[in-house]
Amino acid sequence: MLTALSMVQRGQEVNAVWADKKGEDDFAFERATFVDFVRGKNVLVVDDLMTNADEKGTVYKICRLVEAHGGEVIGVSIVTNRCAGTAEQLGVPQLVALADVEFYSTTPEDCELCKLRIPIVEDIGHGDWFKERNPDYEGKYIKLLTT
Predict the structure, then answer these.
(1) What are the tens digits of pLDDT across the range 74-94?
(2) What residue spans of the chain are helical by DSSP H?
(3) Which of 16, 29, 43, 140 is most deeply packed, by most CB within 10 A?
(4) Which residue range is the domain that position 122 belongs to?
């Protein structure tokens, strides 16, 4: 929304819409009017974080959603590109990121902290997702934000 506001302040006519997550892997325009704002328009997709640039990734899925509703994705703007994703991978003409950061990623079986039974924070990041899939984790779970 701030991207749209900034563009409006520069004299450009901009409509800001968003996609709602449906289930674990799908997105949709919940408000019927959003489809009207996209159809036949040039669309800049904006997101905060890109962790995957292929068909599994949120940004990729949003780009395909826009196209499915008749919009043309003219580019993607993200705050952090943490997967070294490219415009080509996303199937868009341009990708701009404020920061390109690669994070080390591992499986629970190979994780050195898991082997040391370090507790997992369940109320920040994806700790709740991990707990749901690994309820018997020997390192236990802790909460930092809630009691």
Answers:
(1) 999 999 999 999 999 999 999
(2) 2-9, 32-38, 58-68, 87-90, 112-115, 127-133
(3) 43
(4) 106-147
